[in-house]
Amino acid sequence: MRAILSGLHHKKNLQELELELIDVPEPFDDLAVTFLEKQTKASITIPVSKVLSAQVVRLRLNANDLQFTAEGQSEFSWELYLNLQQQNTRGLIQVESEYLSDRHQLTLTSYYQLNSDANGMALFNMHTEQAEDEFTINAINLQDDQLQVIGPSRINNHAITNQRLVLKNVQADSSAEWPITQMTLHGLFTGIIPLSDLAADSTQQLFIRSTIDGQDLEQRVVLAKSLAGQVTQAVTPGHRLVIIDKRFDNGIRVQETAAPSIPQRLANVPGKVGGATKLLSMLMDKANLFYMRRLFKRGHRPYEQPTLIFESFGGRQVSDSPYAIYQLFKQLYPGFTFIWSIDRSQKKFCKENGIPFIIRRTSKWVRTLEKSSFWISNARFPSWVKKPNYVTYIQTWHGTPLKKLGLDIENVSMPGTTTTKYHANFVREANRWDALVSPNDYSTRIFRSAFGFNNQILKVGYPRNDELINSTREDVTALKQELGIPLDKKVVLYAPTYRDNQFAEKGKYTFELPFSLDEFRDRYGKDAVLVLRMHYLISNALDISGYEGVVFDFSNHPNISDLYLISDMLITDYSSVFFDFAYLKRPILFYPYDYHMYKDELRGFYLDYEKDLPGEIAHNESQLLTMIGDKLKTPDMSDNQKFMDFYQRFCSIDDGLSSLKIVNYVVQQIEKHG
């Protein structure tokens, strides 16, 4: 029997912890969680307040209850135990952790953080007596001739207002401030100080001014963690050197001086060469230790610098959740090394966007994979790629399952494999994943059964959906202009699934739109446009010539979230895209023109397709075209009870911070393992 801490929800001023139960037999006569403080051995037992299913329960607590008066103690570390009673038997199961949180500020002087110990057991860490004059940020970097600061804009779900960055000149006893107006993810701000604004030959300390609960404050900016992974030095166009460092009290210090001359820089070269030679020697010596554990003839020791490999859909795209994680990682920790694993087709995109890359299936690709620290992918690597034991493989997956997956497919009819081989490959691959990202309880249960997966699940929502939650109307307008979509027209997105039976022969696929473009243009062309998002295997078979200005083919657009954002409604069939589109609370129409064949002869479904969907079903072309008009008249589905029931089941976990949670998970792994 296992109990796993899998989530945290904020309910007003209370905290709600979610536990996943594995192999815990029903019925539950009594369930509670006992918190045991490691140092004092104090305990608190809190009853489970909600049983969502046999696998998921929740308990609600006030984090302030996990602190008490103890002489000399300001930090409390609580272990969690599931207190289980069944008939006449009572037992305790120590709770494991799959959820690692960022710090949650309760007051100006206290915060809590969910973590795990060295054995993966859950810890609820409570910190008190924090100085009122300190403000903890998430990241600080020197980029694009700017000092960029990212930090919280809320305390215990209450907004912090009128935030300004302040630099105080130590020598001149003066200060200057810059307003903070840019909000990034929900609950975070980005503050900017142009490096050209810095006083010459100065040492300055960073502060923040704000208003909290009506109180005007000035607080010293601190960074509780190390500066590893952040860019802390920059040379300005005026040949000035700017350096960020930390004081002994974790405060941030910014120094501005003249940049070193060329002779001064050359003077440092011999030491660097010697260090590189020593490092190379260490790498070569260590390589022999792993020789037999590699697919190829040479082994490699991991890079000294944390190196993250990103891959999306087998290298065919730079997109999806890995791209969302990459973008935030690059912003928060630009000092780490990030490399994309791509097909040659993505080489131009990467060069145009300044994305470092390696080409798949080259000797450099093999070497880089095996020397990296983390793999972050949304699909499977080839089975012949060997994962070193020091690599942490994070599988983001690429959708909430509607169609059956892996072991749940009873009869696999795809060419080139058998059902037995297909199942074995799935289990073998899943066992390489150290952590699997899940968007909801429904997916978590399916992933465990379909993949035979018993490792860590990060139930934090899909990072790719952060964009849907955090984007503004202005962002949508800019996207439409970028894509050439008329601003005065509604947008209908058609995104069907790829069907296994569209495979004709090797390299050839068939497809035909299941409704008339002429009919769509005649009925809606004056007020709406149609955006097509087809599977990459069949997108080249489309021909929309003659429908310019009415029909747009964005099948190869790398970021499908862009298409969600610009669309007023979605038409799909069996594709899991509707799980993501539902985050926008916009109408969804289902058009399963081959429903019975697809259900009975292909893969089957996990949901009851006719009852559990968040929208109506059009069974033929005539119904489809009529329903499009009806749906365009109801742009917001917030008042639709069936839709909102679906939303609560599948979307409510995602708070727009999924990328940040994955970034935090990776950074904690880096710090834990040195």
TrEMBL record:
Regions that span the bilayer: none
Its membrane topology: Peripheral membrane protein
Keyword Transferase set for record: yes
Keyword annotations from UniProtKB, A to Z: Cell membrane, Membrane, Teichoic acid biosynthesis, Transferase
Gene3D superfamilies: 3.40.50.11820, 3.40.50.12580
Pfam family, one: Glyphos_transf
Subcellular localization(s) per the UniProt record: Cell membrane
Source superkingdom: Bacteria
PANTHER family (alphabetical): TEICHOIC ACID GLYCEROL-PHOSPHATE PRIMASE, TEICHOIC ACID GLYCEROL-PHOSPHATE TRANSFERASE
Family statement drawn from the similarity comment of this UniProt entry: Belongs to the CDP-glycerol glycerophosphotransferase family.
Protein name per UniProt: CDP-glycerol glycerophosphotransferase family protein
